[in-house]
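Hey Z.,

So I finally got round to the fe (ii) ion thing we talked about over coffee. Here's the setup:
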Amino acid sequence: MTNEKVCELLNQQINKEFFSAYLYLDFANYFTEVGLDGFANWYKVQAQEERDHALLFTQYMQNNSIKVTFAGLEDPTRTYTSTLEILKSGLEHEIFITNSINVIYDAAYSVKDFRAMQFLDWFVKEQGEEEKNATDLIRKMELFGNDSKGLYMLDQELAARMYNPPSLVL
Ligand SMILES: [Fe+2]
Ligand SMILES: [Fe+2]
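And the result:
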């Protein structure tokens, strides 16, 4: 039997991961509208990863006979004035997700739920990668995004990102 608080936090995380996908698709919409198709591609791939994360939490819960409940998603629409502003809010969002994973980990740790901790280990590592990716994007944009040729090259680079299924299999 999984601890009630841990169950509740796992269930809430599903919504946060689906919201991440929704937010990144909103970013992709902005980039499509301004003609930066590579940036749009990068965030569409990221949205697929986020959906995978949501499904991994769902699967983990169901494997452990925990009831899953889907809640409504928050409206992801924001008003952005620049590419850099979007990239920075992407990093901010990943830091928020990292904190959220840490809160679940802490709850699992406090009741010695070693199975949940082992499951969450993958996400702890994943969040390190997500924060690095978001930080790298900001740095590249700051270094190369200020003239149109540099921005064009960066957009081309981001156009090459391809979707890979998660390494975690449950
Ligand atoms: Fe995620
Ligand atoms: Fe990832």
